[in-house]
Amino acid sequence: MDLSPGDVETDLIDLSKLSLAMLYQCDESVLANSVKTLLRQVDRPRVNLGGSGPPVRVD
Fold first, then answer.
1. CA 55/CA 45 separation, integer angstroms
2. List of residues 6+ apart from 3 with CB closer than 8 A
3. 26 with 34: CB under 8 angstroms?
4. What are the residues facing 47 on neighbouring strands?
5. Scanning 1, 30, 38, 59, which has the fewest C-beta atoms within 10 Å of its C-beta?
6. What is the per-residue pLDDT across 15-47, written as a single tens digit (0 to 9) for each?
């Protein structure tokens, strides 16, 4: 299934329209909450504990 960014629910900032050059020039305070959220999810990834259901948080 291919979802467009508008079809995905997220608390993260939508960066799909920014180039890397534009992202590099962004004010870090604008990105701070999304970066913290993303790093927390990287540190504690979702796992599928039951077999056939969708992934769930283990924390």
1. 9
2. none
3. no
4. 56
5. 1
6. 888 899 998 899 999 899 999 988 988 887 766
Cβ-Cβ contacts under 8 Å for 38 (sequence gap 6 or more) = 12
Residue 11 and residue 37 in contact, taking contact as beta carbons nearer than 8 Å: yes
Q: How far apart are CA 12 and CA 37, in angstroms?
A: 8
Give 30 or 50, the one with higher predicted confidence.
30
Rounded mean pLDDT, 44-59: 62
Residue whose token pair is 């990287």: 42
User: Does the pLDDT value for residue 59 go beyond 60?
Assistant: no
What is the Cα–Cα distance from 39 to 9, expressed in whole angstroms?
Answer: 18
